[in-house]
Amino acid sequence: MAGQYSHLQFFRRTPNALLARYFREKHDVLQGIPFDKLKETEVEPIFTTKLAPSDPLPGVRGGAKLT
After folding, report:
1. Residue 65 dihedral angles phi and psi, to the nearest 5°
2. 11: Cβ–Cβ under 8 A, 6 or more apart, which residues?
3. Contacts of 15 (CB under 8 A, 6+ apart)
4. Predicted pLDDT at 67
5. Strand, coil or helix: what is 65?
6. CA distance 16 to 39
7. Is the pLDDT of residue 64 over 80?
8. C-alpha to C-alpha distance for 63 and 3, rounded to whole angstroms
9. Which of 6, 35, 37, 46 could be bridged to 16 by S-S, CB 3.0 to 4.6 A?
10. What confidence tens digit (pLDDT) does each residue in 1-59 have?
């Protein structure tokens, strides 16, 4: 039986290089996060960063935190 989806688990299982590429190249957000210096399962900086209202991430409304 499949478990419930969790952003936290998804980000922990996705390599930092891919996360950086997705957020920086596709959406031009999270520029201040040093993905290359984070451990592979260290995703807290992603969740503590506020997204700007104009960020076009699917499923995230303007100004919302990714928690």
Report:
1. -90, 145
2. 19, 43, 46
3. 40
4. 44
5. strand
6. 8
7. no
8. 28
9. 35
10. 567 888 888 888 999 999 889 888 888 888 888 888 989 888 888 877 754 445 455 55
Determine the Cα–Cα distance for residues 14 and 61; give it in Å rounded to an integer: 23
Indicate the domain borders of the chain.
7-48
Rounded Cα distance between 18 and 54, Å, is 22
Candidates 11, 2, 13, 16; CA nearest to 47 is 11
| Cβ atoms within 10 Å, residue 15 | 10
Cα–Cα dist 48/50, whole Å? 6
Name residue, tokens 């039986």: 1
DSSP state of 50: B
pLDDT of residue 15: 93
